[in-house]
Structures are given as structure tokens and as C-alpha cells.
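Structure ticket #2291
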Amino acid sequence: MRDDDIIGLVIALVIVVVMLAVYIALIVLGVTMAKRKNRSPHWMWFAIHPLGLLITLIVMACLSPLKRCPQCAQTTPMNARLCGICGYSFMGPVAFAPQQPLYIPPQRY
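Resolution: structure written out below.
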């Protein structure tokens, strides 16, 4: 083998390793994004194909986050007031601060 062939093989190997590292990093980014939004990280199985990875990352970026019900552990939209499964109220008891009177009459001496 000539020196030019060895250099070409090393460059090709470096390019393949860098592309594979970027591909895996994008999959990890998608799984992290899904977990942060309380979505299933199993969506990233579509990332086996590069086009599936691109589509899944776009979908995960566009989906709104979910919150978990503390009573039944099901996920519901972030703006829900009640759990759709068990009826748990996310609003909870609201404690109001005591209000000061609007008008305090002056004291007379």
C-alpha cells in the first residue's frame, strides 16, 4: 500500500467516526428532550433511519410538555386543571393572603 492510500483510509475512517458520533449525539438529544417534556423516549426508535431521526427531532421540538398526575401517574397536558383519568385537581387548595382594608380612617385625638 502506498502512503496516499493509507492517508485516504485514515481520513475516511475519521469522517465515518465523526458522523457516527454526531448521529448518536442527536439520538441522545432527542431522548433527553422527550424525557424533559414527559414524553415517551421510545419515539427515538424511529431514529434508526436518518430521516426518522430528523422527523422525530422536529416532532419532539414542537410537542408541548406534559405533567404527571401525582395520584394515578398518568400524563395530562400542562394546562389541564383536572386529571382526565382519576379527576385529581391540579389547582389544589388555594390559600388567599389576608387583605388589608382599603380605607383606614384617620385617628382623632
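Closing remark: The chain is about 45% helix and 5% strand.
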